[in-house]
Design a protein that fits this description.
Largest sheet: 7 strands, antiparallel
CATH superfamily: Umud Fragment, subunit A
Oligomer: single chain
Number of domains: 1
Number of helices: 2
Radius of gyration: 13 Å
CATH class: Mainly Beta
Structural class: mainly beta
Length: 102
């Protein structure tokens, strides 16, 4: 764990603790994710992004791309606040792509 955190500080990666159930069963509450900050967003990528109305990072899956904006949804549709609630998100709101879960 310490090695991954040290690596994340040196490379274009960030590590986040998952709080919540919106991405279950893909990513479970209490897990950590490694996020690559240099990437090109594609449909079906799981991404970390800034919540449009709160100062928190959330995880969602890109469902579609529309005019340089992204529709994102949680995998657990019954327990997710996502584009159905706050609309499309811009590329600037996306922190990076989830590349590992541990």
């Amino acid at each position: 764990m310490a090695f991954i955190k040290a690596l994340a500080r040196l490379l274009p990666y960030r590590c986040y603790l998952v709080v919540g159930h919106s991405m279950e069963p893909t990513i479970r509450h209490g897990k950590r994710v490694l996020v690559k900050t240099v990437f090109t967003p594609k449909k079906f990528d799981v991404v970390a992004l800034y919540h449009p109305h709160k100062k928190v990072i959330i995880l969602k899956r890109i469902i579609s791309l529309k005019n340089n904006a992204f529709e994102v949804l949680g995998d657990n549709r019954d327990d997710s606040i996502d584009s159905r609630s706050f609309g499309l998100v811009s590329r600037k709101q996306i922190v990076g792509k989830v590349v590992a879960c541990f």
